[in-house]
Structures are given as C-alpha cells and as structure tokens.
C-alpha cells in the first residue's frame, strides 16, 4: 500500500516510485495488488502491462493537508477483507499505513513495512510493535528507524536496466542532478563546485512548501549560477519518459546532499537510499555523491563513482574535474556502475529479497 500514487495526479518522488516498481516486480511471481488513494475509487490494470492490479481508494480528506495522510473510509475494510496473506505498507508513519497496520493486525494478517523517511506521527512508539517485519531500503534506514534486527530485512531498491541503459550513440556531456530541489539537496554547493565552463542540468521541481528564508532558495540558486562562467539549466518537471534520455546523455550524475543546509538548518535524516543514483548507474553514468545516509551502501568509491564529504565544495569540484576531463575514466566507471546494478540493484533482485522475507514471515508463528 502506498499513501501517494506515482505520476500525474500524484507525486514524482522516490517514495512513490518505489512501491510501484517493487509491486510490478513482485507481480511476476505472486498475486499482487497495489492499494493507493485518489479523488475517486477504482480498480485498474497496470498501464505497463503485467499482472499487477492497482486499486485506488477514495480519499475524503488529507490530515493537515499533507499528501501522505489521505483518509479513506474504505481502507480498514480493505485491509481486513482484501484476502491478502501479507499487508505490505509504505511510509510507516502515514495515516493509511497506521490504519492498515492496526486493522490488519486485529484481523490476524502478517504485516510488513518499508519506510521512506516520513516523520513520526500518530501512534508514535506503539506502532512499530505491531509490525511483524521491517523491509528497509538500506542498513542506514534500519538504524534510523531503530527497529529490532531480528524483525528487519534490508531489501534495498532498484532500477529497471531495460529502461535505464547506456546508449552507445549518445554524446555524453555535462553534469546532471535529478530530484526535488530543496536546500538539503545541496545544489548551492554543486553550483559553486562546477568547474569553469561546465554545464549542469537540474531535473526536478522546486520545493514550494518551504517557509522563509528557505522559500528564497530558487532565487539563491539562480543568482549563484548567474555569477559563474557555467551553464545551469533548471528543467523542473521532466516527463517520465524523457528521464532516461537525460541520464544516458550526462557525463556524470551528482547527488550533493548535505547535513547542514545553507541556511544553517541541520538535516536529521538524508538519503535513505537514493533511487536516482541507481537509475544513473544503470544508465552507465558514473556518480558523485555525498558520503551520507545509505549512499555509501550502493556507491563503491573509486569504482562506480566517487563519495565526497557533505558540503565539501573543493572535494566535489576535484571529482567533477576528473570525470569531465577524462571521458575514458568516466566510461570505465559507468560500465562498473551498470554491472553493480545488474548484479544487486534491479527491481527483480529487490523483489527476490522481499519474497524471501515474506517466506520467513508466513513461516513464523
């Protein structure tokens, strides 16, 4: 179950893409229904084909106006009467996850949860005690949740290597960032770190729910770009079918997230996994990332890309200069990056780890 759908009418975020892609992979092996929420109810086949069913429950309101807290009167009955052996919810602290966990547990269902970083709310400390198995996106995510190791399996996440793949005919150039443009992503440091004459494409929407002074972040970035001999393009909302092209045309992908943003605010939890990093790697694009969160678990420093200390502008610039000036090195790292995804981080591999955890769960007393 996902509180917010992925795509038009929902959100284009990792916390929305993850449940959809995992459900698609699971549906190739087991009967799978993805439950989400919208303005009207319905049951739909996956538009990409396959065996996945997508059930939309009608949301009558959203607590606090937050997209991750839809309220649907049909949810408790769906959790109890849906016929599923296992209820797997996403976003532990979302309102529908809490409702499904309580209703499902009362009905004797087995409960699995994958969290994507939503702050704690509602039932608070009592809620994790109702969950049978936590299927986390990284070891770091498990540490953040603070859940018992005996009830935790790390399943990571994935990328579709058919959709995200290299193109031998593509002319690679410049730096790419994909993600929501907010201060904790560190784009101000990235613009400062760009080598002279370099180009940067930022694909993602600006965070419009920010409060002053952080609401001034878009203007801050534009001013920083205007004062440098660099080319910065803010592509904002990129169509989902155009995203793979951006990855395979970039020389290097960067995720420069920080632990303290440019306004002095400390970021408590950052980058539980980094799906955009896996998508870039699958595309044969080397990555440069901050050494924080779950990123060191998926990026092999010096092999599939580079890790730099969060906020280290000089270190970031040095790595960008290396990869932009040495296409052969960038190509070698890109090949190694794709091989890593093929070996460990496809959605099918993620689904297999998930199914193994389900098997343990159904076999438990």
Concise summary:
The protein is α/β, with parallel strands linked by helices and 365 residues long.
**Percent in strands:** 15-25%
- Record field, number of beta strands: 15
Strand order of the largest sheet: 12-11-10-13-14-15
Biggest β-sheet strands, sense, barrel: 6 strands, parallel
Can you tell me the residue ranges where pLDDT is under 50 for at least 5 consecutive residues? none
* Helical residue percent band: 25-40%
Write the element-wise H/E pattern from the N-terminal end onward: HEEEEEHEHEEHEEHEHEHEHEEHHH
**Overall pLDDT score:** 93
How many individual helices?
11
Shape: globular
Topology:
Layout: H1 14-26, E1 33-38, E2 42-45, E3 53-58, E4 61-62, E5 70-71, H2 75-81, E6 86-90, H3 95-106, E7 110-114, E8 133-136, H4 139-145, E9 152-154, E10 175-178, H5 187-193, E11 199-203, H6 217-226, E12 231-236, H7 243-249, E13 252-255, H8 275-282, E14 287-290, E15 305-308, H9 313-325, H10 327-344, H11 347-363
Parallel strand pairs: 1-3, 6-7, 7-8, 8-9, 10-11, 10-13, 11-12, 13-14, 14-15
Antiparallel strand pairs: 2-3, 4-5
């Amino acid at each position: 179950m996902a509180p917010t759908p992925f795509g038009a009418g929902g959100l284009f975020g990792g916390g929305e893409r993850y449940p959809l892609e995992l459900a698609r992979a699971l549906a190739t092996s087991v009967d799978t229904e993805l439950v989400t929420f919208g303005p009207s109810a319905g049951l739909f086949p996956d538009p990409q084909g396959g065996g996945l069913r997508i059930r939309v429950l009608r949301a009558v309101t959203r607590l606090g106006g937050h997209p991750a807290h839809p309220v649907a009167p049909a949810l408790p009955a769906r959790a109890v009467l849906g016929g599923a052996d296992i209820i797997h919810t996403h976003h532990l602290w979302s309102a529908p996850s809490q409702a499904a966990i309580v209703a499902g547990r009362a009905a004797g269902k087995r409960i699995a949860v994958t969290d994507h970083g939503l702050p704690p709310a509602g039932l608070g400390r009592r809620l994790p005690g109702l969950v049978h198995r936590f299927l986390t996106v990284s070891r770091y995510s498990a540490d953040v949740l603070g859940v018992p190791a005996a009830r935790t399996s790390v399943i990571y996440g994935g990328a579709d290597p058919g959709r995200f793949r290299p193109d031998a005919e593509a002319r690679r150039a410049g730096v790419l960032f994909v993600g929501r443009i907010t201060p904790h992503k560190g784009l101000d440091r990235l613009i400062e770190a760009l080598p002279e004459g370099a180009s940067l494409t930022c694909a993602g929407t600006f965070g419009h729910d920010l409060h002053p002074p952080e609401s001034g972040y878009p203007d801050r970035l534009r001013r920083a770009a205007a004062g440098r001999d660099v080319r910065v393009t803010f592509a904002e909302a990129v169509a989902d079918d155009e995203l793979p092209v951006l990855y395979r045309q970039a020389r290097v992908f960067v995720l420069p997230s920080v632990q303290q943003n440019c306004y002095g605010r400390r970021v408590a939890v950052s980058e539980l996994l980094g799906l955009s990093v896996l998508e870039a790697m699958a595309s044969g694009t080397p990555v440069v990332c901050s050494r924080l969160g779950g990123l060191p678990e998926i990026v092999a420093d010096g092999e599939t890309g580079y890790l730099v200390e969060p906020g280290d502008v000089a270190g970031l610039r040095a790595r960008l200069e290396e990869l932009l000036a040495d296409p052969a090195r960038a190509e070698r790292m890109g090949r190694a990056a794709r091989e890593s995804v093929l070996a460990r981080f496809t959605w099918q591999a993620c689904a297999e780890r998930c199914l193994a955890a389900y098997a343990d769960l159904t076999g438990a007393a």
